[in-house]
Specification:
The complex is a heterodimer of chains A (about 160) and B (about 550). By secondary structure, chain A is α+β, with helices and mostly antiparallel strands. Chain A contains 4 helices and 9 strands, in the order βαββαββαββαββ. In chain A, strands 5, 6, 7, 8 and 9 form a 5-stranded antiparallel sheet that branches. A 4-stranded antiparallel sheet of chain A has the order 2-3-1-4, covered by helices on one side. Chain B has a 6-stranded parallel sheet, sandwiched between helices. A 6-stranded parallel sheet of chain B has the order 9-8-7-10-11-12, sandwiched between helices. Chain B has a 6-stranded parallel sheet with strand order 14-13-15-16-18-17, with helices on both faces. Classes of the chains: A alpha+beta (about 160), B alpha/beta (about 550). The structure holds thiamine diphosphate (TPP). Chain B: GO terms for molecular function: acetolactate synthase activity.
C-alpha cells in the first residue's frame, strides 16, 4: 500500500542526506520525495511517498523519528488530506495542432507558461492521477521533456502536524 | 579563546578525564593544547581503530562517555570500524576528528574525506563544525546525545581553521534539541497490563540484554525476578546484568546459549524482554521463536526496536530502570515451583560433556583463569569461538565487567578495548580472551598497553585456525577448510619483543604455572599463548536459521 508521510525536520545541512541514507541502508523504497522550507525558516517539511505494509511503515516512521534532526513524523494514511503535485511538460506544438493542445490543457486547468516556435510548455498541478492523465493525452504530440515535483500534502482541517 | 583550547575546555567541563587518540596535521592544534593540559590524560594508541575500541572498552566498563581523537582523512576513516562497533552495541563514545580547513572542504584537499558522510549510518549523530561560535553547543549536544536515551557514538568533525579561530568562551548550561526527547517514563497503562500478565503467567521468563546495563537497571531487575520468581536468561550483551550464579539465572540464550535457556524460551507462556533487541543470533528461526508464548512484553528505550523483529503484545517504551521500578510496585510476590522444576529437569537432562584429551582444551583454559581470578575480573574478548567459551564459562555477577563486540562481531576489538578498560579501572583485574586470528588484527596495541604499564592478562586460545569459521566449514561446507588455517608467529616471543611478558603453554601443568605468574606481574601486560586442541567446536550450537530447540548438543557421532 502507498503511504504519504510528512516529516518536519530542522532546516540544516545534511538532513536530507540522513533521510536518504536511512532509506538506502534499511532497504526501504522511496517513490517520491519533496522538500521545502515551512513558515518557520528553521524547519523544513519533507513529504515522502513510500510503498509498504503496516510493519514496514511502522519501522519507517520510527526510524525517521529516531534521527536527531527529525522534529515530527506523520503518516496521512488514515486521515483526510490534500495532496498535490506540480508538473512542467514541454510538448511538440506545430501551429496546426496548437489550438487542440491549448484546449486539452484548459480542460485540465493547466496553463501554458512558455510558447516557442515549435513547442509549448504546460504547467499543471493536481493529484498524481490527473497529471498522469494529461501526460497520456499529450503523448501523441510528442513530449520533449517533462519534470514532476513529487507529491506534497497537508492534512485537512485546523490541526497541524 | 582559540577553537582548539575551547574544545579542551569544553571536554573538561563534560568531565572527560582521558582521551584515546593519535595525532596528525588536522588535529595538531588540539594536541598543542593537550600538551599543557595535565587534567586530561591522553593515551597514545598505535592505530585509530584502537582509539575507538579503547574509548568503547572504557565506556562499557566505567559507564562514562569514552572519547577518542583522530586526524582528518585516513585517521578518521580508521576510526570507522570502532564507531560501527560502538553503534551496534549502543556504547556512548564521542569521537573528534580533524578536518581540512573549511575553505578546502569539497576540493579533494590533502587528507580530506567526507567523514560526516561516511559515518552517518554508523553513528547516533554527527556534526561538522563550520563556525567557532557553534562549537560549545555542538560539544554539549554531542555528549548529551551520546549518553542519553539509547546511548551511542557521536562524531564531531572539526576543521583546522575553526580550531585556530578566536572567540569568547561560552558554556551553554542547557541543551535542548527539538527533535530529541527520549521517553524515560513508561506508560502507566502499559505497565499495569504488564503487571497483570505477570500475575496470570504460569511460565514467565525474563530475557535481558545490554539495555539493562546501560540503564543501571540490574538492581531493579533482580528485585523483580526474586519477588515474582521469574527465571532470567541474558544475551551476550546482557552478561553480568543479572548474577550468573543466581538460582534464577539460566545463562545465555541463543546460538551458543545454554540448552535450558533455549528450552525455556520455547516453552514459556510469558516472555519479558528488557533492553534486548531480538537479534537473529538470539532468536534463531523467527517463525518458531517463542512459539508457545502467549504474551511478549518488550521494554526498551528505543521505540524503533519494538516490533522490529518480533511482534509484541505489551510494548513499553522507557528507561529500563524506571519501568522495572514501576512494575515492581504493581506485582505481588509469587512462586512458580512447577516451572522452576521443569527447568531444573532440562538442566539435568543435558550437561555439557566433559571431554578427555591429551591436548589442552579451551574450556580448561577459561575455567582455570576463572578459578584463579575468583570470577572477579573484568573480562574482555575478541570474536570467535574463544568469545563463546568465555561467555559460557566465565560467569559474572556484576554489570560492567564484560566487554565484547556483540552486534558487529569485530575481530581486533579485544586488545584495544582491554586497554580502555584497564585505563578506566586501574585497580581492577582485566583479563582478555582472544584468538590467534583476532589478536593479530590489533597486536600493535600491545605497545600501548606496555607504554602505559597496563597489567592486562591476555589469554590467547591458540588453535592455529580461524576457529569459528572453521567450525562452520566443518558443519556446513563438508569440512573444506578454505583459508582458515593460520601460520602464526611465536606469540610469546612477539609479546616479549613488544616489552610485555610472553608465556607459551601446551598443557594443564604449564597453564597453572603461567596463570600464577601472569597474576603476579603488575607492571606490564602478560600474553599467555595457550596452544589448545585445534579442532574443538563450540557446543551447544543452534545452526543458523534453525529453531532454538533444534540445538546440536555435542559433536555428531561422539555423544555420551
Ligand atoms: C574483522 C573481522 N573479520 C572477519 C570476521 C569473521 N570471523 C568471525 S569469527 C572468525 C575467526 C576468529 O578466529 P580467532 O580469532 O582465531 O578465534 P577462534 O574462533 O579460533 O577462537 C572470523 C574470521 C570477523 N568477525 N571480524
Amino acid at each position: 500500500m502507498q503511504h504519504v508521510i510528512s516529516v518536519l525536520v530542522e532546516n540544516k545541512p545534511r538532513v536530507l542526506a540522513r533521510i536518504a541514507s536511512l532509506f538506502a541502508r534499511r532497504g526501504y523504497n522511496i517513490e517520491s520525495l519533496a522538500v521545502g522550507p515551512t513558515q518557520d525558516p528553521t524547519i523544513s517539511r519533507i513529504t515522502l511517498v513510500v510503498e509498504g505494509d503496516e510493519d514496514i511503515l511502522e519501522q519507517i516512521t520510527k526510524q525517521l523519528h529516531k534521527l536527531i534532526d527529525t522534529i515530527k513524523v506523520g503518516d496521512f494514511t488514515n486521515t483526510s488530506f490534500v495532496d498535490r503535485e506540480l508538473a512542467l511538460i514541454k510538448v511538440n506544438a506545430p501551429s496546426a495542432l496548437r489550438g487542440e493542445i491549448v484546449q486539452t490543457a484548459e480542460i485540465f486547468r493547466a496553463r501554458v507558461v512558455d510558447v516557442a516556435e515549435k513547442s509549448l510548455m504546460i504547467e499543471v498541478t493536481g493529484t498524481p492521477d490527473k497529471i498522469d492523465a494529461l501526460e497520456q493525452l499529450l503523448k501523441k504530440y510528442g513530449i520533449i521533456e517533462m519534470v514532476r515535483t513529487g507529491r506534497i500534502a497537508l492534512a485537512r482541517g485546523y490541526q497541524s502536524l | 579563546m582559540k577553537g582548539a583550547k575551547m574544545l579542551i575546555e569544553l571536554l573538561k567541563r563534560e568531565g572527560v578525564e582521558v582521551i584515546f587518540g593519535y595525532p596528525g596535521g588536522a588535529v595538531i592544534d588540539i594536541y598543542d593544547v593537550l600538551f599543557d593540559t595535565p587534567e586530561i590524560k591522553h593515551v597514545l594508541v598505535r592505530h585509530e581503530q584502537g582509539a575507538a575500541h579503547a574509548a568503547d572498552g572504557y565506556a562499557r566498563t566505567t559507564g562514562k562517555v569514552g572519547v577518542c581523537i583522530a586526524t582528518s582523512g585516513p585517521g578518521a576513516t580508521n576510526l570507522t570500524t570502532g564507531l560501527a562497533t560502538a553503534y551496534m552495541d549502543s556504547v556512548p563514545v564521542v569521537a573528534i576528528t580533524g578536518q581540512v580547513p573549511t575553505k578546502l572542504i569539497g576540493k579533494d584537499a590533502f587528507q580530506e574525506a567526507d567523514v560526516t558522510g561516511i559515518t552517518m549510518p554508523i553513528t547516533k549523530h554527527n556534526f561538522l563544525v563550520t563556525h567557532i561560535e557553534e562549537l560549545p553547543i555542538i560539544v554539549r549536544e554531542a555528549f548529551h546525545i551520546a549518553s542519553t536515551g539509547r546511548p551511542g557514538p557521536v562524531l564531531i568533525d572539526l576543521p583546522k581553521d575553526v580550531q585556530q579561530q578566536e572567540a569568547e568562551f561560552t558554556f551553554p548550561e542547557k541543551v535542548e534539541i527539538p527533535g530529541y526527547r527520549p521517553t524515560y517514563q513508561g506508560h502507566i497503562n502499559q505497565i499495569n497490563l504488564a503487571a497483570q500478565a505477570i500475575e496470570k503467567a504460569q511460565k514467565p521468563l525474563l530475557y535481558i540484554g545490554g539495555g539493562v546495563i546501560a540503564a543501571g537497571a540490574s538492581g531493579a531487575l533482580r528485585e523483580l525476578a526474586e519477588k515474582t520468581e521469574i527465571p532470567v536468561t541474558h544475551t551476550l550483551m546482557g552478561k553480568g546484568a543479572f548474577p550468573e550464579h543466581h538460582r534464577l539465572s539460566l545463562g545465555m540464550l541463543g546460538m551458543h546459549g545454554t540448552y535450558w535457556a533455549n528450552k525455556a524460551i520455547m516453552n514459556c507462556d510469558l516472555l519479558i524482554a528488557v533492553g534486548a533487541r531480538f537479534d537473529d543470533r538470539v532468536t534463531g528461526n523467527l517463525k518458531t521463536f517463542a512459539r508457545n508464548t502467549e504474551t511478549i512484553i518488550h521494554i526498551d528505550i528505543d521505540p524503533a526496536e519494538i516490533g522490529k523483529n518480533v511482534k509484541t503484545h505489551i510494548p513499553i517504551v522507557g528507561d529500563a530502570r524506571l519501568v522495572l521500578e514501576e512494575l515492581l510496585k504493581r506485582v505481588e510476590s509469587k512462586k512458580h515451583p512447577e516451572w522452576i522444576q521443569e527447568i531444573e529437569g532440562w538442566k539435568k537432562e543435558y550437561q555439557p560433556p566433559r571431554k578427555e584429551s591429551a591436548k589442552l582444551l579451551p574450556h580448561t583454559v577459561v575455567e582455570k583463569v576463572y578459578q584463579a581470578t575468583k570470577g572477579k575480573a573484568i573480562v574482555v574478548t575478541d570474536v570467535g569461538q574463544h568469545q563463546m567459551w568465555a561467555a559460557q564459562i566465565y560467569l559474572l555477577d556484576e554489570p560492567r565487567c564484560w566487554a565484547s563486540s556483540g552486534g558487529l562481531g569485530t575481530m581486533g576489538y579485544g586488545l584495544p578495548a582491554a586497554v580502555g578498560a584497564q585505563i578506566g579501572n586501574p585497580d581492577k583485574l582485566v583479563v582478555l580472551f582472544s584468538g590467534d586470528g583476532s589478536i593479530m588484527m590489533k597486536i600493535q596495541e600491545l605497545v600501548t598497553a606496555c607504554n602505559y604499564c597496563l597489567p592486562i592478562k591476555i589469554f590467547v586460545l591458540n588453535n592455529s585456525y580461524l576457529g569459528m569459521v572453521r567450525q562452520w566449514q566443518g558443519c556446513f561446507y563438508k569440512g573444506r577448510y578454505s583459508c582458515t588455517q593460520l601460520k602464526n608467529p611465536d606469540l610469546a616471543q612477539l609479546a616479549r619483543a613488544f616489552g610485555a611478558e610472553g608465556i607459551s603453554v601446551k598443557n594443564e601443568a604449564e597453564l597453572e604455572e603461567a596463570i600464577n605468574k601472569a597474576l603476579s606481574i603488575e607492571d606490564r601486560p602478560v600474553l599467555v599463548d595457550c596452544h589448545i586442541e585445534e579442532e574443538e567446536n563450540v557446543y551447544p550450537f543452534v545452526p543458523p536459521g534453525k529453531s532454538l530447540d533444534e540445538m546440536i548438543l555435542w559433536e555428531p557421532g561422539k555423544e555420551g
